[in-house]
Design brief:
Length: about 350
């Protein structure tokens, strides 16, 4: 299996995370992707390739032009306001409920209007990393279109929380949604399976009113887990998209036997949709030792996960999302890819 990767992600290096009412060490950090890359090389599952360069057109098929321009300019605006040595840009106020949108205002107004959470800092290398992640995912998608049965986009920062016109949840541009739209624009029928611990609210929102892209997510119940305000079981899609959205929220401490039951339901739903291509939001924060999650999957379970996905017998693009147990992250990520590859003939 080909892996696509860019070192541009190294320049997006958050130091702090606002969580539980305090500033904590960041968990979405460069070593995540580096551990996976090292494991891919050690286990020789395939080449690690440099991505091609794509223009902005695929991004603008998914994201609001104002959000894209803001992300590209935000750090420069922040430094202009607060000085060259200012820390990372983060929002401190939001136009919630009856307040007015501030996208035409100053950098503070724009941050609050475009961000939906305070966990996604913008620093000097953030835009370049997020923009290059799009090149990574589209290069992997191009490999699928060229005939590969599987490809892995080692994207960082992740993307599945970013919606059409907002960013958050460590995500700036929605890598997997951009790839799904790219496939759809080529006349293909994509399905997205999100196995991250956290619901892919951005991906759901982007495709919620559409019938041509199926979205299914297994995740921690938003009654207690981020992103809190989407991911409930009664969200089935809207208008033309009615029935093209399936959420399977799960309780805390979910282990493999219970996860496997939900996965079987998800795979059956995806198969019934009849996609030409599968896209998997590969979050690994379902692992038992993940520091910010509460599921109980073990390393061997990720081999089974890959095998179950392979049973769909569709060309499959895996896109790296969450997962923060650094010591195990390389192993469990490559376990999924190896499990998938073991079923290919």
């Amino acid at each position: 299996m080909k892996t696509f990767y860019s070192p541009a992600h190294l320049d997006h290096d958050p130091l702090l995370l606002f969580e539980r009412g305090e500033l904590l060490p960041a968990v979405e950090i460069p070593v995540r992707a580096e551990r996976v890359k090292t494991e891919i090389a050690a286990r020789k599952i395939g080449p690690v390739l440099t991505p091609a360069t794509f223009d902005d057109a695929p991004i603008l098929r998914v994201h609001d032009a104002g959000l894209v321009a803001f992300l590209a300019e935000a750090h420069a605006e922040w430094r202009k306001r607060y000085g060259e040595n200012a820390p990372a840009a983060m929002p401190s106020a939001w136009p919630a409920h009856s307040l007015r949108d501030g996208r035409g205002g100053d950098i503070e107004s724009k941050l609050g209007s475009y961000a939906f959470s305070a966990d996604t800092p913008i620093m000097r290398g953030t835009w370049q990393a997020a923009r290059e992640a799009v090149n990574v995912v589209l290069s992997a998608a191009a490999a699928i279109r060229a005939g590969d049965n599987g490809a892995f986009a080692l994207t960082r920062p992740p993307g599945h929380h970013a919606a059409n016109d907002v960013f958050g949840g460590f995500c700036y541009l929605n890598n997997i949604a951009i790839a799904a739209q790219w496939f759809a624009d080529a006349g293909m029928r994509p399905a997205v399976l999100d196995v991250d611990y956290h619901h892919g609210n951005g991906t759901q929102t982007i495709f919620y009113n559409r019938a041509d892209v199926f979205f299914c997510s297994l995740h921690a119940d938003p009654h207690f887990a981020y992103p809190h305000f989407l991911g409930f079981a009664d969200e089935h899609g809207n208008d033309a998209g009615e029935g093209a959205n399936l959420n399977l929220p799960l309780p805390a401490n979910t282990d493999w036997p219970h996860y496997e039951q939900a996965l079987a339901r998800a795979i059956a739903a995806v198969d019934a949709f009849g996609p030409d291509v599968m896209l998997v939001s590969l979050g690994l924060d379902t692992f038992i030792d993940d520091p910010i999650a509460a599921f109980r999957l073990k390393a061997a379970d990720y081999l089974r996960l890959g095998e179950k996905i392979a049973a769909l017998k569709r060309p499959t693009l895996f896109v790296f999302e969450g997962g923060y147990a650094l010591e195990a992250l390389g192993t469990i990520t490559v376990n999924v890819l190896e499990g998938f590859e073991s079923q290919q003939s």
